[in-house]
Design brief:
Number of helices: 6
Largest sheet: none
Distance between the termini: 30 Å
Radius of gyration: 17 Å
Number of strands: 0
Strand content: under 5%
Oligomer: single chain
Shape: globular
Number of domains: 2
Length: 187
């Protein structure tokens, strides 16, 4: 099977290319690096929506694109959480970041295993997981920006949303694991 590089897949690859760019900008000794990182992260989030929309609209969905899209998301989230934890070294940030990264590894592995036994549909993306992703992405954007804005404690709001994301992360992981166990027990 040949790998097809079409517009949606190239947009996904752009999202992956934004990861090292965001990382370099994050560490630049520049007073606006937080704003630039937040913009890069927002662009990456937009490409996540755009590649899926275009793939469906233009009927360009491919197995490679379906594989690459969640990989790009997980790479971006994991990398940004790691650099944020390094910058704001605190167990209050490290614990939810570890929960989120650990869940992503666990569920990706679970999906791969379920696909191998022909039960991939049992662990498809749920609405709860979409809420988890939304709170996670907003929290990361706020934590990247980190400065108060019009008297609003942006960094603190980022922490709160990150904890909400971590709770939703655990909840969705439990749901996926239960669905997998039910599917396996029926075999």
């Amino acid at each position: 099977m040949a790998i097809e590089f079409n517009l949606p897949t190239n947009i996904t690859l752009l999202r992956i290319a934004l990861i090292p760019l965001l990382t370099v900008v994050f560490y630049l000794p520049w007073q606006y690096s937080n704003i630039a990182c937040t913009i890069i992260f927002i662009i990456a989030g937009f490409t996540d929506w755009l590649d899926g929309y275009l793939a469906r609209k233009m009927q360009m969905e491919t197995p490679f694109g379906a594989f690459l899209d969640p990989v790009a998301d997980k790479l971006m989230v994991a990398m940004v959480l790691v650099i944020l934890v390094q910058q704001q070294a605190s167990p209050y940030l490290a614990v939810p970041a570890a929960v989120i990264i650990g869940r992503e590894i666990t569920i990706a592995s679970l999906r791969e295993w379920m696909a191998e036994i022909g039960q991939r549909a049992k662990v498809k993306v749920s609405l709860l997981a979409k809420w988890k992703t939304a709170s996670q992405m907003i929290s990361i954007g706020l934590l990247l920006y980190r400065e108060d804005l019009l008297g609003i404690p942006v960094n603190s709001m980022g922490y709160v949303l990150l904890y909400i994301a971590a709770i939703l992360t655990l909840w969705s992981m439990v749901n996926y694991l239960k669905a997998a166990l039910i599917a396996i027990s029926k075999e």
